[in-house]
């Protein structure tokens, strides 16, 4: 009988180790894909998640994470996390088919530290490397978990804001932010308010926003299919600083505008912008499904607004929870394994990571619809 | 499409409306009746700017978005409806070929305008292309398609010149496609400068949907407007898009540059920008 490794890849289960470290989250995941049953050509059995471990670099209130310190965090924890992941999965390095890592986009220094770890593991264990586009990781993981087959994707995180739809073997960007990402806007406003970065600034804004009652009018900047966030941030920062310096603002009912009201208004405004451009993309491509991925995708108010819009169009919204929304290693392993199964490999000399790596640069060999 | 009356505001729910298209932001209804002039008086006792009352009317409705905060929704609906109505009315007064503006209710998000009873430029080009193909098959004259294509040219020249007039007034459309250009029968075009019988047959292009339009003096914005139209030609009429775009731009330059020195200067700047926009595409590299 031939040994497991000699069977053609699509006839046996495959296992990938994924390393993610494009921002302040270091993630290690192990995933197993099963072959398509010979009788059915369309359905692949769901992937099996063997380990999904994450460690987040958290900074004090009022401070963001700097590339150098974040890279140091990743370097300090990566060995421990890989060991942990192997232990959780109960596998040995021999069981793994390929080592997947985030090649971009993201912050340079953290990306590099994790790429070095991936190269080392690949050479140590003698396993092929697979470089993965971070955005593709999010999209493919979202599709796998939710079962949405061809959705319009809203990818919202600290570094990215894009509306994406699949067409002819590419994930094409229909609309995106013209300046800062939505998560960046929320994080920076959290710094202005000096609220904690633990577990994440966006989560703390969401908690505050739930207590907000008064809507403060903010700029609303949708330009065709694109959005712009920097002006809104500058405006609301101004309002907040005004309030801190002892010039309270009043709502129409005479009550003082609070931090909670500001968080509420900021969320209402920028999420409405995101839902609007997503709806435009849905009308354009004639799709009924929306998939929200990325860290900001955890936000329940965003999910709720998107759900109302999708239902009004006779469709549905698909979202995942924090295990898969927030950056993680498992999505890198999943997207990497999909590429690996089509024969894709990243040679050592091509394993350089890049801060700028657009979603539409990746050829999607594993989809043919 | 069946009338979808469930979501209409009560002020117009009693009207005889037919939903004819639905975009992401607005619904377009057809109405046989004028919003406030009884049909018995139209064209008789009361004269209007509507050239053909029997063609009916269009109601553009921006329904409230339930996902948005009420205050934000009200503000956006009012602002966008008003802005679109203002631009439409301004262009109409300036003599640009757009549907005649009739009425607006910014709070309810309603705009009434004339119905252009004609096909879109997209359908018209497709029909001409089919005709040419059939003729060539019948007559067996291959290699003649280029010559036959010339019958499309006069219309595209006038499309270009109409866009030029729009841009000359520092208005950019924001969503120029071959579906947003409708064709009215060639009555009015015969009046100015028709030299042959075939030119009388050229329909008049009408620009519609100013939902994304804005005022801008920047050559950049106008170049992007032209680039969007160019992309629309490439995706909808791929085989001859090269010629089509060339003719539209020929009409554009001629329409813009007619007479004044400053206009010639402006149009040169826009064409230079268009080359730059083409090179970079619309999308920048990922940052942020």
Give keywords:
heterodimer; A: 369 residues; alpha/beta; Nucleotidyltransferase, domain 5; 2 domains; 5-stranded mixed beta sheet; 40% helix; 19% strand; globular; B: 288 residues; alpha+beta; Phosphorylase Kinase, domain 1; Transferase(Phosphotransferase), domain 1; 5-stranded antiparallel beta sheet; two-stranded antiparallel sheet; 9 strands; disordered C terminus
Strand content of chain A: 15-25%
CATH class of the largest domain in chain B: Mainly Alpha
Order of helices and strands of chain B: EEEHEEHHHEEHEEHHH
Q: Please, what is the CATH homologous superfamily of the largest domain in chain B?
A: Transferase(Phosphotransferase) domain 1
Number of strands of chain A: 12
- Characterize the main sheet of chain A: 5 strands, mixed
- Give the name of the CATH architecture of the largest domain in chain A: 2-Layer Sandwich
How large is the radius of gyration of chain A? 21 Å
């Amino acid at each position: 009988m031939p040994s497991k490794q000699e069977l053609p890849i699509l006839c046996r289960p495959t296992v990938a180790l994924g390393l993610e470290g494009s921002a302040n989250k270091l993630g290690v995941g192990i995933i197993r894909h099963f072959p398509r049953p010979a009788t059915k050509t369309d359905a692949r059995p769901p992937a099996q998640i063997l380990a999904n471990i994450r460690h987040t670099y958290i900074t004090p209130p009022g401070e963001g994470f700097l590339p150098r310190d974040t890279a140091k965090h990743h370097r300090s924890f990566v060995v421990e996390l890989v060991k942990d992941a192997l232990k959780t999965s109960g596998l040995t390095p021999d069981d793994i088919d390929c080592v997947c890592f985030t090649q971009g986009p993201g912050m340079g220094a953290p990306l590099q530290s994790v790429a070095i770890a991936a190269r080392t593991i690949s050479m140590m264990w003698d396993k092929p490397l697979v470089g993965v586009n971070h955005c593709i990781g999010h999209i493919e993981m979202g599709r796998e978990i939710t079962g949405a087959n061809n959705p319009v994707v809203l990818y919202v995180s600290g570094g990215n804001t894009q509306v994406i739809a699949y067409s002819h073997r590419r994930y094409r960007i229909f609309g995106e932010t013209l300046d800062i990402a939505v998560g960046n806007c929320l994080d920076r406003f959290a710094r202005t308010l000096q609220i904690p970065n633990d577990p994440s600034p966006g989560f703390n804004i969401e908690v505050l926003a739930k207590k907000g009652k008064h809507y403060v009018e903010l700029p609303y900047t949708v330009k065709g299919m694109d959005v712009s966030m920097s002006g809104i941030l500058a405006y609301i920062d101004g309002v907040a600083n005004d309030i801190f310096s002892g010039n309270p603002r009043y709502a129409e009912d005479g009550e003082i505008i609070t931090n909670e009201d500001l968080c509420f208004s900021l969320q209402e405004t920028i999420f409405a912008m995101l839902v609007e451009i997503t709806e435009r993309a849905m009308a354009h491509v004639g799709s009924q499904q929306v998939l929200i991925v990325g860290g900001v995708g955890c936000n329940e108010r965003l999910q709720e607004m998107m759900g109302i819009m999708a239902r009004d169009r006779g469709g549905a919204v698909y979202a995942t929870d924090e295990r898969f929304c927030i950056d993680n290693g498992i999505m890198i392993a999943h997207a990497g394994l999909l590429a690996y199964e089509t024969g894709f490999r990243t040679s050592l000399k091509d394993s350089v990571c890049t801060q700028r790596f657009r979603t539409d640069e990746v050829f999607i060999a594993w989809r043919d619809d | 499409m069946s009338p979808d009356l469930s979501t209409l505001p009560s002020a117009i729910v009693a009207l005889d409306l037919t939903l004819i298209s639905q975009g992401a932001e607005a619904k377009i209804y057809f109405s046989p009746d004028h919003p406030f002039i009884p049909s018995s008086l139209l064209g008789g006792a009361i004269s209007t700017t509507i050239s053909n009352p029997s063609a009916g009317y269009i109601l553009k409705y921006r329904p409230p978005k339930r996902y948005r905060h009420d205050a934000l929704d009200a503000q956006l609906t009012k602002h966008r409806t008003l802005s679109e109505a203002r631009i439409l009315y301004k262009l109409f007064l300036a003599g640009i070929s757009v549907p005649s503006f009739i009425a607006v209710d910014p709070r309810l998000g309603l705009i009434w305008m004339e119905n252009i009873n004609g096909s879109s430029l997209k359908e018209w080009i497709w029909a001409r292309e089919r005709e040419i193909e059939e003729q060539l098959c019948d007559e067996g004259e291959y290699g003649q398609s280029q010559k036959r294509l010339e019958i499309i040219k006069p219309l595209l020249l006038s499309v270009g010149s109409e866009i030029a007039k729009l841009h000359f007034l520092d208005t950019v459309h924001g969503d120029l496609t071959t579906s947003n250009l409708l064709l009215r029968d060639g009555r009015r075009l015969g009046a100015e400068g028709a030299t042959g019988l075939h030119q009388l047959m050229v329909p008049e292009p009408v620009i519609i949907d100013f939902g994304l339009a804005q005022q801008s003096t920047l050559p950049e914005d106008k170049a992007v407007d032209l680039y969007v139209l160019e992309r629309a030609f490439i995706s909808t009429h791929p085989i001859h898009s090269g010629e089509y775009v060339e003719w539209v731009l020929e009409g554009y330059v001629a329409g813009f540059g007619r007479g004044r020195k400053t206009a010639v200067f402006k149009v040169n700047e826009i064409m230079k920008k268009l080359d730059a926009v083409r090179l970079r595409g619309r999308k920048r590299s990922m940052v942020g």
